[in-house]
Please model this.
Amino acid sequence: MLMALTASLLLHAAPATVVVGLKPAACVLFVDGKKKGTGEKPLTLKLSPGKHVFRVVYKGDAHEEEVALKSGANSPWNWEFTGVEEDPPKE
Model:
């Protein structure tokens, strides 16, 4: 009975909202192995509560971090590769 109640609560838990900012703009974000977007503009993600793996890739460099999200939470998450030069804007 307790297992069924726990499973029911998990299935109906409110998603967490994460606003992701990445620099430089050419960074690519993966969450749990799935591509979610780039750093061209802030990304607003709705994810299930619990732990997720955020991976940011830029020109062969990568940063990976486990992020714990709470049900209904609104959280910022930012990552910047430092010491890199951005490509000039395309015309």
